[in-house]
Design brief:
This protein has helices at 5-10, 37-50, 60-79, 94-106, 127-136, 153-159, 182-191, 211-214, 239-244, 279-295, 297-316, 345-354, 367-373, 389-407, and strands spanning 18-19, 22-23, 25-26, 88-91, 114-118, 139-143, 164-170, 195-199, 218-222, 233-237, 255-258, 263-265, 321-323, 335-340, 357-358, 360-362, 378-382. By secondary structure, the protein is of the alpha/beta class. It folds into 2 domains: 5-30 and 297-406, Aspartate Aminotransferase, domain 1; 39-293, Aspartate Aminotransferase, domain 2 (3-Layer(aba) Sandwich), CATH 3.40.640. The strands form 5 sheets. It has a 7-stranded mixed beta sheet with strand order 4-10-9-8-7-5-6, sandwiched between helices. The structure holds pyridoxal-5'-phosphate.
C-alpha cells in the first residue's frame, strides 16, 4: 500500500519548519527521527496528568504511571513478536542495550574464545566487544564485506567455529545500507553453540522484524530512531538469556531483597532496569509503536525502497559520485551514503544544509569501515515514512548543482591577478 505522505506529514509539526527560509528536507533519519504529535501529546499527557514514579507507591498516580510503563513493554514485545514483557528491557539507546549484553557475556568468556563481528559494524557494536575480549583474553574475528558492500557469507561461515562464543552483527548497515541475512547468520551461530546479538538499530524502525522468526538470542534497537523520544532504547533477550544476564547497574527497583550484606535480583525485566526509569520516554515510545503499526511496517519498508531507488538512480547519474553498498535498492535499507569526488563530506553536507536539506557527513560512527573503504567519511541521506519522492528528487537535484559548482575552478579575484 502506498503511503499517504501528505497526511502523515501533518502529524509532524517540525516538518513545517523553514531553514534559511527554505522548507526543511529532513534526511538524517538514521541518526534520529522526527516525532509525531501523537508521541509528543502522549508524553505531555503523562506529565500533565499522571506523572509519578513507578513500581513503588500505592497511590493512584503511581498506579497509572506503572500501568503505562508496563504496558509500553507489552506493546514493544508485541511489535517484535517477543514472548512477553520479561523479554523486553528498556534502556536509553542501542548502545546501552549492546553494552548490557556484552558486559554480562564477558563474564563467561575465557582465553581462546572468539567473538565474531562484521566489518560493517557501528562503533556501538565494536567497542563493547573489544572491551569484553580484552577482559577475557578472547579474540575478535571479523566477517568481511565484498566489493558490493555485502557480507561474504562463505568467509563468514568459515570463521564461525567451536571457539566462537558470540556472533554480534548489524541487521542493516548504517553506512552501506546493506540488509544482512540475519536468519542465516543467527542459525550459523546457533549451530556452533554461540550466542547471537543483533544490532537492529537500522532495521526495527524500518521493516517488519520478528524475533521468533529470526531466532536471535539478543537484539538491540533505539526508540528515538523509530519516532520515539530521545533517551529510549530496547534490549530484547530470549527469557533464558536474560535470566542469565548479570545487571550492569545496581540499585533501586532491580532488587527483590536487600540485607546489609547482600541482595537478590528482581524478576525480569526489572532486574536489568535499575533506578527510576524514563517513564515519559516509555509512554512516548508506546505511542510511536502505535503510530508505526497503524501505517504498517511492510508499507514503510516499501516506501523507503521507492525513495532509495530514486536516490540511487539519480546519484549514479552524477559523474564523480561514488555510492557505497549494494546497487539494488531491494537489498538495502532506506539510506544512501556517497562521496562527491574531491569534496569533503562536511562541505557537501554544508552545501546541502544551505538548501534546507539535512543530511549527515562524516564517518557515521563506523571508522574501521571508512578506513577499509579508503575514505575519511561520506555523506549520508536517510529516509523515513514522512519523506516524499519530491524530497528525494530535490536532494539529488541539489547535489547535481553542487557537483557542477565544485567542478568549476574557483575564480581568482581581480585584486589577486
Ligand atoms: C547500526 C547502528 N547501531 C548502533 C547505533 C547506535 O545507536 P544509539 O546512538 O541510539 O545508541 C546506530 C546509530 O546510528 C546505528 O546506526
Amino acid at each position: 500500500m502506498r503511503l499517504n505522505t501528505k497526511k502523515i506529514r501533518e502529524d509532524f509539526p517540525i516538518l513545517k519548519k523553514k531553514v534559511y527560509g527554505k522548507p526543511l528536507v529532513y534526511l538524517d533519519n538514521a541518526a534520529t527521527t522526527q516525532k509525531p504529535r501523537q508521541v509528543i501529546q502522549a508524553m505531555d499527557s503523562y506529565y500533565e496528568s499522571y506523572n509519578s514514579n513507578v513500581h513503588r507507591a500505592v497511590h493512584k498516580l503511581s498506579q497509572e504511571a506503572t500501568q503505562a510503563y508496563d504496558d509500553a513493554h507489552e506493546k514493544v514485545a508485541e511489535f517484535i513478536n517477543a514472548e512477553g514483557i520479561e523479554e523486553i528491557v528498556f534502556t536509553k539507546n542501542t548502545t546501552e542495550s549492546i553494552n548490557i549484553a556484552a558486559n554480562s557475556l564477558a563474564r563467561h568468556l575465557k582465553k581462546g574464545d572468539e567473538i565474531v563481528l562484521t566489518q560493517m559494524e557501528h562503533h556501538s557494536n565494536i567497542v563493547p566487544w573489544q572491551q569484553a575480549a580484552k577482559k577475557a583474553g578472547a579474540k575478535l574475528r571479523y566477517a568481511e564485506i565484498n566489493n558490493n558492500g555485502e557480507l561474504d557469507m562463505q568467509q563468514l561461515h568459515s570463521i564461525i567455529s567451536k571457539n566462537t562464543k558470540v556472533v554480534a552483527f548489524t541487521h542493516v548497515s548504517n553506512v552501506l545500507g546493506t540488509i544482512n541475512q540475519a536468519k542465516e547468520i543467527v542459525a550459523a551461530a546457533k549451530e556452533a553453540g554461540a550466542i547471537s546479538v543483533l544490532d537492529a538499530a537500522q532495521s526495527v524502525p524500518h521493516m517488519p522484524v520478528n524475533v521468533k522468526e529470526l531466532g536471535c538470542d539478543f537484539m538491540a534497537f533505539s526508540g528515538h530512531k523509530m519516532l520515539g523520544p530521545t533517551g529510549t532504547g530496547v534490549l530484547y533477550g530470549r527469557k533464558e538469556m536474560l535470566e542469565k544476564t548479570e545487571p550492569m547497574l545496581y540499585g533501586g527497583d532491580m532488587i527483590s531483597e536487600v540485607s546489609f550484606e547482600d541482595a537478590k535480583w528482581n524478576e525480569l525485566p526489572w532486574k536489568l532496569e535499575a533506578g527510576t526509569p524514563n517513564v515519559a520516554g516509555a509512554v512516548g515510545l508506546a505511542a510511536a509503536v502505535d503510530y508505526l503499526q497503524k501505517i504498517g511496517m511492510e508499507n514503510i519498508h516499501g516506501h523507503e525502497r521507492m525513495l532509495t531507488r530514486i536516490a540511487l538512480k539519480r546519484l549514479q547519474g552524477i559523474k564523480d559520485v561514488a555510492v557505497y553498498g549494494p546497487k539494488d535498492a531491494a537489498k538495502r535499507g532506506g539510506l544512501v551514503a556517497f562521496n562527491l569526488n574531491g569534496a569533503h563530506p562536511h562541505d557537501v553536507s554544508a552545501f546541502l544544509d544551505a538548501a534546507g536539506i539535512a543530511v549527515r557527513g562524516g564517518h557515521h560512527c563506523a571508522m574501521p569501515l571508512a578506513r577499509l573503504l579508503g575514505i575519511a567519511g561520506s555523506t549520508r541521506a536517510s529516509f523515513y515514512l514522512y519523506n516524499t519522492a519530491e524530497e528525494a528528487e530535490k536532494f539529488t537535484e541539489t547535489l547535481e548543482e553542487i557537483a557542477a559548482k565544485l567542478k568549476k575552478p574557483t575564480p581568482i579575484p581581480e585584486s589577486r591577478k
